[in-house]
Input
Amino acid sequence: MSRLSLKEQCKTLKLGYIPSIYLEITCHDREQYLTDLFAAELEARWANRVRHLIKRAGFPAHKTLDGFDWKPVTLPTNTTIGDLTELTFIERRENVLALGAVGTGKTHLAVALGIRACMEGRSVRFYRCLDLINALLESHRQGRLQRLMAELEKVELIIIDELGFVPLLREGAELLFNVVAQAYERRSIIVTSNLQFGQWNTVLGDNRLTAALIDRLVHHAHILAFEGESYRLQRALSAIVINQSEE
Output
């Protein structure tokens, strides 16, 4: 057998990052060098996995928990910030429902928790509610609904953003219910909405369907109330004040 190059050997052994990092590893002795080299390979693999998970999740922007303002958020008595930021709710297959006015940070928190989950190696999907409904309806029309539902069944966290902005047709509301019912006690869902539960029937269009959907979401859920003036409005007003002071 002819002697293979380092790159060819690494490809055969599926050590994809070693050819580009082996010269960066300091060598004190053989065992230390190999240990550090393989550690760097594993670290590079993990970073690539996290990048893939974040890309696959479909987040609209990259948001983190660093500097997130919790002051407008009212937590239930049995919920701590740590339950959310440490993703304990995912381990327990619990839901997070973020309710409040537009621009108060609901989507920011949902995305930041989703990215945190990806960084721990968990699979996440982010959908604006209407986008999810459209994807479900299109898959149904093309005969691929079962495939999409099977994909969602493998996800550990589903984020449904902006429920309440657009009324849903009956078929769309029923498909959304199927997603929630399939996830019930099997995986976690984060829902953000500008509507209180009593107003959800105006979006879903059916009182019984609305009650069944809320029942499955609320059971084992952390319900967060976002109050106060819109965060985006505060930033806009701050910018106006800054601009005026500079004139």
The beta strands are 73-74, 95-100, 124-128, 157-163, 188-193, 221-226. The chain has twelve helices and six strands. The chain has a mean pLDDT of 90. Residues 30-57 form the longest helix (28 residues).
